[in-house]
Amino acid sequence: MGSKGYEKVREGTNGFSCLVERAFKGTTETAAAPACFDAEGSRTLVHTYLRREEPRAGGKSEAEIKDDIAKGYKDGRFKAPGPGFLYMMSTENYVYDPDAKQSGFVPPHLMFYTAYMTVKDLGYESISPTMVPYLVQPGEPEALIPIAVRRPAQDSSSGDSHKH
Questions:
Q1: Burial class, 106, CB count within 10 angstroms (exposed 0-12 / middle 13-18 / buried 19+)
Q2: I need a surface site. Which of 81, 89, 137, 154 has the fewest CB within 10 A?
Q3: What's this model's pTM, rounded to 2 decimal places?
């Protein structure tokens, strides 16, 4: 990210968009951990993610930015995504938690768009860190269900990773 927001590195050809997203001012997601949106997310969510950085660069508060995005959904500037996903497959995903005042590791994961889904839609009474599947931003247009991805171990004794 440049001093005035995001900078395009190159134009893609498959409809996906990847960026190092800052969930909020002061986060420490690393450059090695881009979020990659499918075509649906590129058409919808990427616009709000990019929009957040414009007022941040101008010194707006997180509350003002949140209000601007909410108004954008209400007045039609932004559209909630339909079915789709984004992925963060880096093994170097670290996010700063301002409440705990520490960074924490986030494993490689997929996130499925679930616009406006609530925890009750998933059969829960309230959000809990032990909920599986877990719902991020419940009830919001940018609600997501993250699913951790485990990479298979490589067998270095032979070139064939398929055992029969």
A1: middle
A2: 154
A3: 0.77
Q: Residue 156 falls within a domain, yes or no?
A: no
Count: domains in the chain: 1
What is the rounded distance in angstroms from the CA atom of residue 75 to the CA atom of residue 123?
31
Which of 114, 62, 120 lies closest to 70, judged by CA?
62
Q: How high does pLDDT run on average in the chain? A: 81
Cβ atoms of 95 and 29 closer than 8 Å: yes
Q: What domain range includes position 72?
A: 17-148
In this structure, are residues 60 and 51 in contact, taking their beta carbons and an 8 Å threshold?
Answer: no
The model's pLDDT over 47-73, given as tens digits with 9 standing for 90+, comes to: 998 898 888 888 899 899 999 999 999
Residue 9 lies in a domain: no
